[in-house]
Design a protein that fits this description.
Number of strands: 17
CATH superfamily of the largest domain: Vaccinia Virus protein VP39
Structural class: alpha/beta
Number of domains: 2
Helix content: 25-40%
CATH class of the largest domain: Alpha Beta
Shape: globular
Number of helices: 13
Strand order of the largest sheet: 6-5-4-7-8-11-10
Distance between the termini: 44 Å
Radius of gyration: 21 Å
Length: 408
Amino acid sequence: MKCRHCDAGLSLQFMDLGSSPPSNAYLSAEQLLAPEKWYPLRVLTCTRCWLVQTEDCAHYAELFSDDYAYFSSFSESWLRHSQRFVEAATQRFALSGASHVVEVAANDGYLLQYVKQAGIPCTGVEPTSSTASAARAKDLDIVEDFFGAALAERLVVEGKAADLIVANNVLAHVPEINDFVAGFAKLLKPHGVATFEFPHLTQLVAKCLFDTIYHEHFSYLSLTAVVRILEANGLSVFDVEELDTHGGSLRVYAQRRASGERPVVDSVPRLLKAERDAGVNSAAYYAGFQKRADDIRDGLLAFLIEARRAGKSVGAYGAAAKGNTLLNYAGVRPSLLPWVVDRNPAKQGQYMPGSRIPIVDEEHLKRERPDYVLILPWNLKAEVSNQLAYIRSWGGQFVRAVPEIEIR
């Protein structure tokens, strides 16, 4: 395989998770009678541009299908995060009714609803029919397609050039990353701004967040790699913010290289230096990750086996993609974890891919009254713990497996 950005040959392995089905390929009861498609899940590092990337196996159209089951609006904390961003960006970039905002990967309209409420014209780009329909139900203008340079040119012709383009948790999800980023340079107005949010590679490595590795994530991004990719495709980074979302993320602000006039903020060279000091651009930085991930896997299995031996009941909360990576890598099946609760009705009544653990509603948890609730989307631990605080009434405890077993 060659690097999806710079085309260099790849030989430095970062992580091998064996094989698993696509992380959002949830199963119906009928599909339990048929075989599943499993793909190798291996991550390599480019030693030329230092882009960390999943080995190509599954086609993106299969990963982001019409019945895509991830809906952003089911997380209250993510909604608050998005609303705060819209308020801050509106003020910082003087957005008004004369502006135009485009969100790439608009999902179910979780963010653009706040843009619309502010009276700012906006358009969403979202390729999955399930979430695009939910966004249209919020009276949002949605283009149902995959984003790239060709679509950007079409939107410009239609008079939809953007003062602000928002791309939250999508830069890592695109196989053709150069074409994708080039589309932003084409769609931006001469002095427009593009923002990209993505989980930060240094946090993934420091905390061993290996469960964020799955087929939908084609890339694992450092600022070092992102600056290079953006500059090669007509954009320049002028600001970066460190966020606590998804275990630690970056929000990068970029402008057109040819016409942008915003000065570079000190945060950019400071964070680039921090990455160099950490060793992001050296092969040694990526060594040892596999063993640390294996230790987390073994810790989860030991906890579940000991709980069963002790006669304790365990359920899980959050049928999240990261949970599927963890459970499949650990080989967990319903005998150790009999059910997973999820608030999303689109997932309830289905089964987790690979592990085939049934997904149930919250009433099931209240009836079963488990001794332990394993929170699979650990990034929402505070939100979930508050939502399910009532399990304390029967002596229930919360468990987190990543970056280590924590029971409280």
